[in-house]
Amino acid sequence: MQEQNANQPTTLAEFYLDAVVDLNELIKKAQERTWTALQAKEFNISPDDSRKILGKYLESKIKLAIIHVDLVGFTKLCMTLSPNRLADIIRAFTQEMSILICSYGGYIIKFIGDAVLGFFMVKAGGVEEEKIPSTNALNCAFAMKNVIKHGINPILSQYDYPEIHARISVDVGENVVVQYGWEKHKLNLNNENFEVRNPIIDILGYTISIAVKMTSLAKPDQIVIGQMIFDIVDENLQTRFNELPINSEVWNYISSTTGNIYKIYGSKMDQ
Question: What is the pTM for the complete model shown?
Answer without folding.
Answer: 0.85
